[in-house]
């Protein structure tokens, strides 16, 4: 034990005492760069990186410590122990390829002018490669597989003496702690790596070890060889690095830090002080050369992306346009509460899918309000002209405020370009007309009919008298009478109604309404009064009682037969009840049917002044006032004219009361 210790101390003292001690350390290479000479394309960057090569092709880069280092005490002596460590990085623009590599070299001359910028790594050339007179010891970090040098692969570390053919080599990597195996490293990865080279002058053992940056030195070296370097190295040598670029791949070789010691361990590097490597951006050339998929996708992505962006924008615009609405100043104070969103209506009607029916002014769709589950009927009216729209909307709004049990409730409206949407309560039993004309499949009993008529009459009375303004419906007809769940008649479709103040004379020139329900005075003068509504209501009364349309084509003569004339004909013949609807069966009150027929005729009197008011009509309908004693002649005296509907042209002939009797006799049926 004592002996062992003694020999250890002896050997240690021998190890150090043999000659001068020299060491140097570079944690980065300046600036200023001291004691190092760079040659070829080698340079030192501003932040202190020793850059052996740049991307210039076929060039060498050398960097040597410019003071000779004494490796031997005497020219014929043995080589002292020496040790070096350095941190390097090799970056290649093409990630999988690089040209040549870096060699740590101990050379007799600080300049290597004949070193070939190729696989000879700037150390040798084709003539002197392998010649013992070179006196070169090197450790190669070789990134090219050169079969002529017996290279194992394109990523190896080798020990070289006077030749590029390695004495020993190994794939780049390191042995992990005992038993954990070997870990490969890629020299050209651009990552920082540390290398240790140790020569033991006594055992002549050369160890080369490498590890990733900031990993401690592995215990087991990567490459080892036992070789006495005494014949290889001269007494004074230069140490440094050599590198060469080839024909391709644009590599860059960097040394970040370096320390060296003769007769002692190389001083450790302060890794935190080492300069930073540049940031490498992927170069275009790489993208095209290696990753054509990526380059294609770089071209394709805009090709796909831009149209899809355009498509998206178009979708948004289309959606905007689809749900676009119009709103004007006056609407904000008039109709704010009744204004509905088109989008909501669109969804409520499931895109206007369920068509209830089409009238003269538009189509009606069924819908359900999503929140309340309230059933609605949406009427789409196209209004090309913006004229009178304000009046129209204000009218709608006023109707929205009306509440009468015989008026179809208006829930709101929506206005779009060229379109107006009116939202009503849904009337589950549809319109009255289909019960009258589709008999006997679909029919109403007399009780229901008289109830509907009373309902409509009270609605009209409400419009004419009870409401704050005089509202003339203008389009009273069977298809505008809707039946609610309890078969109550409800007046709907105020599409043509106009508001006018009480007492003021409503002036219009346009003839509106439905043919067959039009009062002759309205046709001739274009004037609209409450009496025009009464006329139409009279036609409705006859319709309900007779189950006939206001105008029917006679099957035999092909002539148009007006309901008013037709019923009047029966009356003159004294059997007015024969005009009643045959589908009524027997369950009816004869006197009531007779009353309705006569009242119908009275209301559809061609003389507006002879028509009763809606108030009177209500009285008659409820039986407060009797009509039964009214005779056809009474009616004539009241100005009844027949054949009035045959044409406006004929109207002139029927202005005087004197000709009425004639007309009764000649034209009456
Ligand atoms: N509120 C409603 N509830 C149920 N059905 C309705 C409603 N409003 C209208 N309809 C149906 O839509 C059809 C067309 O209505 P409309 O356009 O008012 O007809 P017109 O113009 O001939 O009076 C009606 O015949 C009726 O069957
Ligand atoms: C490489 O370095 C040499 C010498 O410093 C210089 O002349 C050459 O322009 C450099 N090439 C590139 C590509 O930077
Ligand atoms: C060194 O060796 C050479 C031959 O190998 C010899 O000629 C020379 O004398 C030797 N010098 C010394 C100092 O031993
Ligand atoms: C190094 O080489 C140069 C010329 O190539 C020569 O002048 C010089 O003497 C050499 N130095 C040594 C130490 O061999
Ligand atoms: C190789 O290098 C030697 C010097 O070491 C030189 O004399 C010779 O001319 C070089 N050959 C070529 C081909 O460059
Ligand atoms: C080695 O080089 C020397 C001088 O450079 C030359 O005389 C000798 O022939 C070379 N030997 C071989 C084997 O090429
Ligand atoms: C390491 O590299 C060698 C040679 O390239 C290969 O044979 C081996 O499979 C690699 N090992 C791992 C773990 O990648
Ligand atoms: C380096 O050498 C100097 C003398 O030149 C010595 O003082 C110092 O301790 C040495 N450093 C190391 C780390 O061996």
UniProtKB/TrEMBL annotation:
Its main location: membrane. It is a single-pass type I membrane protein. Keywords: ATP-binding, Glycoprotein, Kinase, Lectin, Membrane, Nucleotide-binding, Receptor, Serine/threonine-protein kinase, Signal, Transferase, Transmembrane, Transmembrane helix. It catalyses: L-threonyl-[protein] + ATP = O-phospho-L-threonyl-[protein] + ADP + H(+); L-seryl-[protein] + ATP = O-phospho-L-seryl-[protein] + ADP + H(+). Its EC number is 2.7.11.1. ATP binds at residue 379. PROSITE patterns: PROTEIN_KINASE_ATP (PS00107), PROTEIN_KINASE_DOM (PS50011), PROTEIN_KINASE_ST (PS00108). One of its GO terms (molecular function) is carbohydrate binding. SUPFAM superfamilies: Concanavalin A-like lectins/glucanases (SSF49899), Protein kinase-like (PK-like) (SSF56112). In the N-terminal section; belongs to the leguminous lectin family. This is non-specific serine/threonine protein kinase. It comes from Arabis nemorensis. The lineage of its organism: Eukaryota, Viridiplantae, Streptophyta, Embryophyta, Tracheophyta.
